[in-house]
């Protein structure tokens, strides 16, 4: 274990600088179509919504990120397709939309049939979990640009306009239900890799908290797909939803300007305890980078919270307050 406190920014990903880049990228995107296809939301929520009559079509795009480097090290690529689909589908679910179709983009340094078959296996499983079809995609051979491969995709969903959930209904005193993650999911891996590569462990070593599996296999556990959210929406008065990914709990600022008090948070998985110990990462940095065992959040009236928790395998973890984000007294922002 290093004596130095590792951070996401020092590993190469500065969330604040990334936000500045996004603002610079989008500030000139001022043209907006009118009529059918007109945007219904501003850029910056979990998914973009466009007018489609009585429905809104929802669009999200995302990739697997540097988790693919661990897949390369382990020579096992059959789960990253699930991650690719999950990162997109969960963003659609976070505004109440049902996923209906997906297209993928696979950029390669070179071709390998076994590798391609494994990528396809993961994409197929992810699509089945999400109850949607893969309509097509693009494969690009880019040996002068790509070292290894990159996998990303775009998901199309739909939602009746009256059922869109943006967070505007969130009220003081609302309950927060946290739903467990499957593990690290598919963000923060630049810091994950820095921690492991600076430690005495390799990805092929037994995972100390569960020696029956390797560290690499533990880190390749695919992102959970939260399709049960659609059932909760049908049966409960959901005020807000959040998919906890890159920047950890800071993602909650997309949902509401009100605050979050996580007074009874979910227990972080052993993999987070390992990463924190080996990287000497402080609590604040962990919660500002990783999901810390909670991959999705539902905000709804307190009297309906236990029902939502039972439907999702989650639990009531906190309540909506006036400002800030706190976890057991730790101030996140």
Automatic annotation (TrEMBL):
Which PANTHER family is this protein grouped with? TRIFUNCTIONAL PURINE BIOSYNTHETIC PROTEIN ADENOSINE-3 (PTHR10520:SF12), TRIFUNCTIONAL PURINE BIOSYNTHETIC PROTEIN ADENOSINE-3-RELATED (PTHR10520)
Q: What is its EC number?
A: 6.3.3.1
Q: Which reaction does it catalyse?
A: 2-formamido-N(1)-(5-O-phospho-beta-D-ribosyl)acetamidine + ATP = 5-amino-1-(5-phospho-beta-D-ribosyl)imidazole + ADP + phosphate + H(+)
Q: What are the record keywords, sorted?
A: ATP-binding, Cytoplasm, Ligase, Nucleotide-binding, Purine biosynthesis
Q: Name one GO cellular component term.
A: cytosol
Show the SUPFAM superfamilies listed in the entry.
PurM C-terminal domain-like, PurM N-terminal domain-like
One of the GO BP terms on file: 'de novo' IMP biosynthetic process
- Biological source species: Methanolobus chelungpuianus
Question: What is the annotated localization of this protein?
Answer: Cytoplasm
Q: What is its main location?
A: cytoplasm
Pathway the protein contributes to: Purine metabolism; IMP biosynthesis via de novo pathway; 5-amino-1-(5-phospho-D-ribosyl)imidazole from N(2)-formyl-N(1)-(5-phospho-D-ribosyl)glycinamide: step 2/2
Any one Pfam family here would be: AIRS
Q: Tell me the GO molecular function terms.
A: ATP binding; phosphoribosylamine-glycine ligase activity; phosphoribosylformylglycinamidine cyclo-ligase activity
Name of the protein: Phosphoribosylformylglycinamidine cyclo-ligase
Q: Where is the PurM-like N-terminal domain?
A: 45-159
- Superkingdom: Archaea
Q: Which residues form the PurM-like C-terminal domain?
A: 173-324
């Amino acid at each position: 274990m290093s004596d130095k406190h590792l951070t996401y920014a020092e590993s190469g990903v500065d969330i604040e600088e990334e936000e500045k880049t996004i603002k610079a990228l989008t500030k000139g995107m001022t043209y907006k179509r009118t009529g059918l296809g007109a945007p219904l939301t501003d850029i910056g929520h979990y998914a973009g919504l466009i007018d489609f009559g009585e429905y809104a079509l929802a669009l999200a795009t995302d990739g697997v990120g540097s988790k693919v480097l661990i897949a390369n090290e382990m020579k096992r690529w059959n789960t990253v397709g699930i991650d690719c689909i999950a990162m997109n589908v969960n963003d659609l679910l976070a505004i109440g939309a049902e996923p209906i179709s997906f297209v993928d983009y696979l950029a390669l340094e070179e071709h390998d049939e076994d590798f391609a078959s494994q990528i396809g296996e993961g994409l197929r499983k992810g699509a089945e979990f999400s109850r949607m079809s893969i309509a097509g995609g693009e494969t690009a051979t880019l040996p002068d640009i790509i070292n290894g491969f990159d996998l990303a995709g775009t998901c199309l969903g739909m939602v009746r306009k009256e059922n869109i959930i943006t967070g505007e209904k969130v009220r003081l005193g609302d309950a927060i239900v946290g739903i467990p993650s499957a593990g690290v999911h598919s963000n923060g891996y630049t810091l994950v890799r820095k921690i492991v590569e600076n430690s005495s462990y390799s990805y092929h070593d037994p995972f100390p908290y569960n020696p029956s599996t390797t560290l690499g296999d533990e880190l390749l556990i695919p992102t959970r797909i939260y399709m049960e959210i659609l059932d909760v929406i049908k049966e409960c008065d959901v005020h807000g939803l959040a998919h906890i990914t890159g920047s950890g709990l800071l993602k909650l600022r997309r949902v509401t300007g009100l605050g979050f008090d996580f007074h009874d948070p979910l227990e972080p998985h052993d993999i987070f305890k390992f990463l924190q110990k080996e990287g000497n990462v402080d609590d604040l940095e962990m919660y500002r980078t990783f999901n810390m065992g909670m991959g999705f959040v539902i905000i709804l009236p307190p009297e309906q919270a236990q029902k939502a928790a039972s439907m999702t395998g989650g639990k009531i973890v906190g309540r909506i307050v006036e400002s800030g984000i706190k976890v057991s007294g730790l101030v996140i922002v």
